[in-house]
Design a protein that fits this description.
Elements: H1 2-30, E1 33-36, E2 38-39, E3 47-48, E4 50-54, E5 64-74, E6 82-84, E7 86-88, E8 101-103, E9 106-108, E10 114-122, E11 132-138, E12 145-146, E13 153-159, H2 175-178, H3 183-193, H4 212-231
Parallel strand pairs: 1-12, 4-13
Antiparallel strand pairs: 1-5, 2-3, 5-10, 6-9, 7-11, 8-10, 11-13
Helix pairs in contact: 3-4
Length: about 250
């Protein structure tokens, strides 16, 4: 009799668990949720929760920049397009909607589980002295609700100061071609090549990136330009650490 009672209780418990799991699966189908799923543009493809951008080195005619942020659904795909939106997190954001930035709505295409949220950041006076910060969260609107996960928020920082590229010390990274980072070296690179971003791995499928051959060519151009620059004033270009700028 005791064994029979134990078996009955065990079967009842299993039934409850299975019923609970079934309800959760149904809930996600009927109540789709969304979260940020941004991968670092490196071979490691680790998840990141923030991104920085600088207008430094950009022509004066450039007054805005679109920052794409990748998102992913929790639940099943749909056979129709679905919309979503995002909003600023109060207290963590020091930027003003409409003046400093604008959040564009996004779409999860039919039969897809990922999409892109585009945010426009504006180049306003004073960005050389202050960094604007926008902390995003998925809005409880459109076809999705926000997922309760670790990466439920995403931070965008921008200014007009020189910011060390996020892929400088990663693998593959810019250090392999340009050596140790310094603000003076980075400014010299931007002014010489007229390029402010050097993606070495495509951030999303189909996106452009610089090959190893292209990076080696850039390095050769920089080394030649540095020789000419150092001959002109007859003193080597030194960085903020009082060390001579060089390339490997």
């Amino acid at each position: 009799m005791k064994i029979y009672n134990i078996l009955t209780v065990a079967l009842f418990g299993i039934t409850l668990v299975m019923g609970s799991c079934k309800k959760e699966i149904i809930a996600y189908v009927d109540d789709p949720r969304l979260y940020f799923y941004e991968e670092e543009a490196t071979a490691a493809k680790s998840i990141i929760t923030s991104r920085s951008f600088s207008f430094a080195g950009q022509p004066g005619t450039v007054t805005q920049q679109i920052i794409p942020v990748q998102v992913k659904i929790m639940g099943e795909n749909s056979n129709k397009d679905r919309s979503f939106s995002a909003e600023a997190v109060p207290g963590l954001t020091n930027a003003t909607q409409g003046t400093d930035y604008r959040i564009l709505g996004g779409t999860i295409a039919a039969n897809k589980n990922t999409g892109t949220l585009n945010v426009i950041v504006y180049r306003i006076p004073g960005l050389d002295k202050i960094t604007k910060t926008l902390v995003l969260k998925i809005s409880n609107s459109g076809d999705f609700k926000p997922a309760t996960l670790e990466n439920s928020i995403f931070t965008i920082n921008w200014n007009e100061a020189l910011i060390k590229p996020a892929n400088w010390d990663t693998f593959p990274g810019l250090a392999s071609y340009f050596g140790v980072y310094s603000m003076v070296k980075w400014k010299f690179i931007i002014e010489t090549l007229g390029i402010t971003s050097f993606p070495l791995v495509a951030p999303v499928p189909g996106a452009s990136f610089y090959s190893n051959a292209a990076m080696l060519d850039f390095k050769a151009q920089l080394k030649a330009a540095l020789i000419i620059r150092n001959l002109s004033p007859n003193t080597p270009l030194t960085d903020e650490f009082n060390l001579a700028v060089s390339f490997p």
